[in-house]
Amino acid sequence: SDSVGERNPKKHRRIPVDESIFEIKPDVIIITHDHLDHLDPETLEIFLAKATKPITFLAPEAAYNRLLEFGGPHNYVLLAPHSVWSQGGVTFYSVKAEHSDRTAAGFILDDGRKTYYVSGDTLYNYDVIDDVLDLVEGGVDYAFLPINGRGNNMNARDAADFAYEIGAKCAIPTHYGLVDDITPEEFAEIYIKKYDTNMSRW
């Protein structure tokens, strides 16, 4: 939703909401931390209203406590860093994140074929890197990393270096262009340059 912009006029959405997202019937929703641009009640209320079966929510402590307020038949799971949840053939591993919400977490999803790392909001941090590498031998297949460099997030250069360190075979920049003018070009340039000169590592 545009709930962030409604509270801070400098942060109105620049990209309209794609309403088709609400046709999805999720089995699991992961919430990385308790900030409005990641845990948006207006968005979640729509999913909950349309739900035809209980949804499993996976979240670290602060976000988990906020989610409990929704109630209903849904399954709210406190998945602090280093916890594991399995459902529907997918294993969810919670890993450390370094962010202003001190309970924030990232998630690694493993469906037995590919691994997906959703960092949530985080800075470049050695403990975060170690957490990811401890779980994914040979690097993750897909990494979703913030590049906006604000609000305790990695900037484009740090995110590119982070992707390299965790051996990401594909890195998808996030947290840009929605409420700001940040573009992914710097991230792409650094990431591709490292990829091209270190093929044996990838």
Protein traits:
202 residues; alpha/beta; 6-stranded mixed beta sheet; 21% strand
Write the layout of secondary structure elements.
Elements: H1 3-7, E1 28-30, H2 41-50, E2 56-59, H3 61-67, E3 75-78, E4 84-87, E5 90-96, E6 105-110, E7 115-118, H4 126-135, E8 142-146, H5 156-165, E9 170-174, H6 185-197
Parallel strand pairs: 1-2, 2-3, 7-8, 8-9
Antiparallel strand pairs: 4-5, 5-6, 6-7
Helix pairs in contact: 5-6
Radius of gyration: 17 Å
Largest β sheet strand count, sense and barrel closure: 6 strands, mixed
Report how far the terminal alpha carbons are from each other. Answer: 37 Å
What overall geometry do the principal axes of the alpha carbons give? globular
Mean pLDDT: 92
Helix content: 25-40%
Low-confidence parts, pLDDT < 50 over ≥5 residues? none
Q: How are the strands of the biggest sheet laid out side by side?
A: 4-5-6-7-8-9
H/E topology pattern: HEHEHEEEEEHEHEH
Number of helices: 6
Please report the total strand number as a whole number: 9
Q: What class do helices, strands and sheet pairing give?
A: alpha/beta
Content of β-strand: 15-25%
Compact overview of the structure:
The chain has 202 residues and is an alpha/beta fold.
Describe the structure.
By secondary structure, the protein is an alpha/beta fold. It is built from 6 helices and 9 strands, in the order αβαβαβββββαβαβα. It has helices spanning 3-7, 41-50, 61-67, 126-135, 156-165, 185-197; strands at residues 28-30, 56-59, 75-78, 84-87, 90-96, 105-110, 115-118, 142-146, 170-174. The strands form 2 sheets. It has a 6-stranded mixed beta sheet, covered by helices on one side. The longest helix has 13 residues, at 185-197. The mean pLDDT is 92.
